[in-house]
Amino acid sequence: MEQVLQNINKLNRSLEGVIAVGNEFGAVEALWSQFENVMTEDTGESDEAKPEGRGGADEDKVEEQETQAGREESAKEEKK
To answer: How far is residue 65 from each of residues 4, 61, 62, 73, measured CA to CA in Å?
Structure first.
């Protein structure tokens, strides 16, 4: 009976080790998922379909942030 308990404990420790190693790949999986999503979005748009002077998603984000910053600054000026 003692031998069975020892083997079960070894098995449990081994399973915990395998799970811990698997959990270490969570961040890598999330990064690849983001990459896949970006690549999927980009394949839906071709360079010919983009208006001239537009660089894609990154430039859109910057433009959106600049617009938001302008709105916030206008709101601050109105409060003064």
So the answer is: 63, 6, 5, 12
Rounded to two decimals, what is the model's pTM?
A: 0.38
- Tell me the C-alpha distance between 38 and 30, whole Å: 12
Write out pLDDT tens, residues 15-66: 999 999 988 899 999 999 999 999 998 877 655 555 555 555 566 666 666 7
CA distances to 25, 38, 71 from 31, rounded to whole Å, are 10, 11, 32
CA 24 – CA 18 distance, rounded (Å): 10
State both tokens at 12. Answer: 């449990």
Return the H-helix or E-strand segment holding 25. Answer: none
